[in-house]
## 1
Amino acid sequence: MGILCDYFSAPTDEAAATAADVPGGPRAASDPGFEVVELKGIEPVVQLGTLEALLTGVDYDVVAENPRQGHAVAVRHDGEVLVISLTDELHAALAGASESRLREVATPWSETEEFWGQGEPSVLAEVLIELAGLARRAAARGERLYCWVCV
């Protein structure tokens, strides 16, 4: 079974939650429109929690205790569609990371068990660069980061 993950920014949890009611998620939303980065199969809880630990140097267990880590701001269709918040710490780490830092962290991230040996560092580096761009633009607008998940 595949998992679709669209990462996007929104000004509030309430605004982000509206993406759960749009067929096709935030990419298809017109009012409000969302800036979206599509990352099929890269889920927001464990994989991005591990990414946050690598980027910030904070232990994964501490990352997992953050109330915004994996917090569902919307749940629809018996959990088949979710909008999950990303932590402000991950947002800040992505927004503040240089391209060289993102390329550097892509290698250990690709080696985590959640990629099942299939993580290609060069591909993941490009993913991180795209996600960091979203984080920077969201920060400039005073928005937070979220993930729309469809199982």
## 2
Amino acid sequence: MRLRKAAGYANRDDFADALGVNRATFKAWETGRTRLKLEDACDIADLLHCTLDELAGRDFQPAAYSDPRQQSLNHCYSLLDERSKDDLAGIASTFTADASRLAVKSGQDTGDEAETVRRAV
């Protein structure tokens, strides 16, 4: 119920309609009277934008990244639909393909700090 409400579905009926299932069936799932099939659980998790672990009430620990920007990017990626993920992957590949955007690795002292900074931006 917490995940459903957090996703903006204030009542069971609206969520059941969005999911395309009978309202009584969804109520039985949410109250624990009947168990979900894996396929139904996946559909619900997709609609709620959560993992199956979260749906099952398990403590979900997303991957930790030392760089908070990577953590933020991964979170944003997880919210995208498949087409948007493909688009984003294509955009990201242009950054790595453009050698002028890559910074000189530390430890390779070129003696020209300005050149290193220019290449990083």
